[in-house]
Amino acid sequence: MSCDFLALAQPGVQKLSPYVPGKPVDELARELDLDPATIVKLASNENPLGPSPKALEAIKAHLDELTRYPDGNGFVLKSKLAERYGVGVEQVTLGNGSNDILELVARAYLAPGLNAVFSEHAFAVYPIATQAVGAQAKQVPARQWGHDLDAMLAAVDGNTRVVFIANPNNPTGTWFDSEALERFLSGVPERVLVVLDEAYIEYAEGAELPNGLSFMAAHPNLLVSRTFSKAYGLAALRVGYAISSARIADVLNRVRQPFNVNSLALAAACAALDDQAYLSESRLCNSTGMRQLETGFKAMGLDWISSRANFIAVDFGRDAAPINQSLLRDGVIVRPVASYGMPTFLRVSIGTEAENARFLEALRKALGH
Ligand SMILES: *Cc1c(COP(=O)(O)O)cnc(C)c1O
């Protein structure tokens, strides 16, 4: 008789299903016997322009250090981040992607009997991080696809230790303004850690989206997490960071793996941070591409959720799976979001002008236009 090692897993883990990423280009190329170069992938919100050339140079310059452990304290990158954002080095925590930050928070602050509050249609990693440590995930119904911050506030109870909020949110692209954030932060009990996930904040233009960092002085229970995976184009290297009070950073560093960010990632992130011109170019590419897709959707009579990130969720008003299949056959990979409770939508990352055009063409075909 053999044991059932699923049944032996802790109850929160048994209820999870593995994270499903966007389909890799090589996988589709193998399945359809296509040249990978002809495939367009708009599925994982990566920067279609790739990383800054300066980041690539920095990686090459550090290749001969691969035999050594990286700087476990990430001194140079932390100093650069601290300087850029006007915070102390002791307020910065580095993560192996910002996913790592979310897990550090869960490991440090959640446990069986405690809970984390987050929104319906929010990032898939929130329930994973929460349930993995045996805590309860309290999912609050969304309002017009976005966070219902008042309802989330009402969901906070005596056992709540963490609230995850994303601005803009993935996969919906929805956002909230300064006033809403301030009202929320003022209402949350001081002992609840608010994780403000700003993975896409670099795409926000103008004052429409609040900069979470400016709320930290008044709200010491706020942690802002950001990443080099999206606008900075370094998704494969896995580097993200949190800015919080020094106290919270100290706690996170107690559960952090000693060498969680590798040396190539550290070097590339420093160079990327210094190349703000490249970031502006990436932002411009995104806003132009967003308009291109919206115009295309409009011409096809489709609805979408207005987005302030580098992706857009388009609604077909019926099961989107067959449309996704048709796009795949045409060598176009986008992201089905049925697992996010959005079966009639597909999430499309903004690509280059040519990639967006390829996608729109394939979509027209898929819809029989
Ligand atoms: C992509 C994304 C992240 C960042 O993931 P990394 O681990 O930094 O690559 C975090 N939060 C949200 C909402 C995201 O969409």
Automatic annotation (TrEMBL):
It holds the Pfam family Aminotran_1_2. InterPro entries: Aminotrans_II_pyridoxalP_BS, Aminotransferase_I/II_large, HisP_aminotrans, HistidinolP_aminotransfase, PyrdxlP-dep_Trfase, PyrdxlP-dep_Trfase_major, PyrdxlP-dep_Trfase_small. Signal peptide: none annotated. It catalyses: L-histidinol phosphate + 2-oxoglutarate = 3-(imidazol-4-yl)-2-oxopropyl phosphate + L-glutamate. Keywords: Amino-acid biosynthesis, Aminotransferase, Histidine biosynthesis, Pyridoxal phosphate, Transferase. Its cofactor is pyridoxal 5'-phosphate. GO terms for biological process: L-histidine biosynthetic process. GO terms for molecular function: histidinol-phosphate transaminase activity; pyridoxal phosphate binding. CDD domains: AAT_like (cd00609). It is an enzyme of class 2 (transferase). The modification N6-(pyridoxal phosphate)lysine is found at residue 230. Its EC number is 2.6.1.9. Residues 38-363 form the Aminotransferase class I/classII large domain. Pathway: Amino-acid biosynthesis; L-histidine biosynthesis; L-histidine from 5-phospho-alpha-D-ribose 1-diphosphate: step 7/9. Belongs to the class-II pyridoxal-phosphate-dependent aminotransferase family. Histidinol-phosphate aminotransferase subfamily. Homodimer. This is Histidinol-phosphate aminotransferase. It comes from Stutzerimonas zhaodongensis.
